[in-house]
Amino acid sequence: MWPRLYPAPEKSPRLLFADKEGRIYDHPYLLAMGLSGYDVVLPEREDFIPLPVGSALYVLPERYPIGYDPHKDEPVVLKENPFAPGEPVFAVAAYLAPAHTQVYLCPYLESRKELPPLPLFSYAAAGWHRGRFWATAFRSDFDHRQEVRFFNEERIEKAAKEFLRRFPNNRFVKHLVENCVRRYRCPAARNFVLKRFEAPAPCSPSCNARCIGCLSWQAEDGPHIAQERIAFVPTAEEMAEALIPHLKGAQRAMVSFGQGCEGEPLLQAGLIEKAIKLMRQATRRGTINLNTNASLPDEVERLRKAGLDSIRVSLSSARDNYYKAYFRPRGYDLHNVRESIRRMKNLGGFVSLNLFVFPGFTDEKEEFEALCDMVSLGIDFIQLRNHAIDPIWYLKKINFEAGSECLGIKNLVKRLGEEFPRLRFGYFNPPLR
Description:
By secondary structure, the chain is α/β, with parallel strands linked by helices. The chain has two domains: about 10-140, no CATH class; about 195-425, TIM Barrel. The chain has eleven helices and 20 strands. It has helices spanning about 155-165, 170-180, 185-195, 235-250, 270-280, 295-305, 320-325, 335-345, 365-375, 390-395, 410-420, and strands spanning about 15-20, 25-30, 35, 40, 50, 55-60, 65-70, 75, 90-95, 100, 110, 125-130, 130-140, 195-200, 250-255, 285-290, 310-315, 350-355, 380-385, 425. The strands form three sheets. Strands 1, 2, 5, 6, 7, 8, 9, 10, 11, 12 and 13 form an eleven-stranded antiparallel beta sheet that branches. Strand 7 (about 65-70) and strand 8 (about 75) form a beta hairpin. Helix 1 packs antiparallel against helix 2 (about 170-180), helix 4 (about 235-250) crosses helix 5 and helix 5 (about 270-280) runs parallel beside helix 6. The radius of gyration is 22 Å and the shape is globular. The N and C termini lie far apart (about 45 Å).
C-alpha cells in the first residue's frame, strides 16, 4: 500500500486541505497521498510536477483529506483544522491543464453516506512543496493549442463579433459563439473564432448511450452537467459555410464532429456525410475528424468513403463488463466498436483511442491486456485523457473489484509503446494533412 521507509518531509509535497470558507492550507507535517483504484498510496517524488499553468485547485465538499504521517508510518484521515481545532476540513484536488495526464487521484473519505457525486471534473492528487503547488501528473502532449497564455480575451471577443457579423443567419455559428465561446469558454470554439487549430462541429442532440459521466446529460440523481447539450440540428450547409474557410485558412486546420456539448454524432451520419462532401468539394486541405463511441460500423464506413480522415473512439475500459457499466449502451456493444475500428483501418483511415485515464483501473494488468487486444486492431494513436468523474462514486457505479496488480500510469504507457512501436501517444487529436 505504501513504502515503509520514511520519506524526508523537505523532499515530499505536504498535504493540502481547505477550511469551511474555502481557504487552502498546507499541513505542517502530513504528506500528500494519492488514490489508485480504492488504494491510498504514497507517491514517489518523481510522480509530482509543479502544478501546470492553467490548472485549478478544487475543494471537495464533505470529504475529509487523507495524508501520510511520517512519524507513525501510516495514512491519517484529517477531520479538523490543525490551525483551528474543532473546525472541519475538506480535501483539495487539482484539475489539470490540457495536455497533462494524472498519475494518482486525490484520496478522500466521505463524511457521510449518500453524498451527491462531485461535478464532472478530474481530481488529481496535489500538494505543497517549496513555495508552490504540485500535482501527480506528467505532460502527455507538447501541443500548445489550448494553453491559456495563447488566449487573449479582447482578441477572442473581437473575433467572435466578426463571426456573427460575417454569418448573421447561421445558427451553427451563433451556437459556437454565444454558447461555446462566451458561455462556456470552450478552448476549441475559441480557437475556431481565432481561425486556428481544431474547430468543433456539434450537431447531434441525441445519443445511443447513457454514460454515467456524460458531460451534457444526466439523470436527476447524477452529477451536475459540465455543459448543456446542443438543442437543434444544424444543416449541412450551415456547417460547411462556417467550416470551409477554417479548413482553407487555419494553421494545422482540423474539423471535429462529436463534442462534449452533444450526443453521438453517428446518429446524424447522413447530415455529416453531406457536410463532409460539401467541405471536400471546396478543399482538400485540413483534417476532418469524428469523435465517436464507434457504435455503428456501417455509418463509420459511410463517412470514411465520403472523405472522413480520422475517428477518435471513446474508451473507458476495454473489458466488456466495465465498458457496459460506464457507457450503458443502447443497441450496441464492444463488438460493434471493434468492427468500426476494423472498417476504418481497412479503408486506410486513422484511428485514435480517447482513453479515459483512471489510476488504479486503467493500469490494471487485466485492463492492459484487454487494451493491447484492442490496439492490435491497428490503433494509430492513444489520447491520454483524464477521466472527469467523482473517483469513489465511479468505482461504485461500475461495481469495480480490484483484481490484478497495477502497472502505474507511466509504466502503462511505456509497456504499450514496447508492445506497439508504431503507436503514438498524446492528448489532442493530431492533424493529418
